[in-house]
Amino acid sequence: MLVSPTPYSCSKAFSGYPCCHRQWRHQGHCRFVHGYSRSFTVHFAASSLDSCGFVVDFSSLRPLEQQLSQQFDHTFLVNADDPLMEEWKRLDQLGALDLRVMDNVGMEASARLVWSWTNALLLERDGGRTCCWLVEARENTRNAASYHIIPDWFGSSSSGS
Predict the structure, then answer these.
(1) For the whole model, what pTM was predicted?
(2) Averaged pLDDT of the chain
(3) How many distinct structural domains can be found in the chain?
């Protein structure tokens, strides 16, 4: 079990992002277009609490929720090197799908992407007082992947806000 890097931590779950993708290199059934309702649990740590006594004010995460919705809500995710890219682009132009091109559509890479978005938001807003140290990405109740690392800049805030 992973443990927060600080005594102060919290998590927020984001769910309800139905999308589809394919892993074109996979030799089995994952090479076919298939979908899940993705969800993400984002874990936060703080070197100190804010003026309200929070690690992270969840209402301040709306920009992250918007990014998640834009990327994963009723979209078709495809790897940038998919050999059918021109077909996917054509279907997107025809309005048959809402294409999102990613380096890697897998859940592990999706967890890392959400980790990076979250930390960009937190660093800009909190100046190093808070960080995201773990993201769990789920494609269903049985399968999950995670990305966990403490950003190099975490704890650099001297404000203790």
Answers:
(1) 0.93
(2) 94
(3) 1
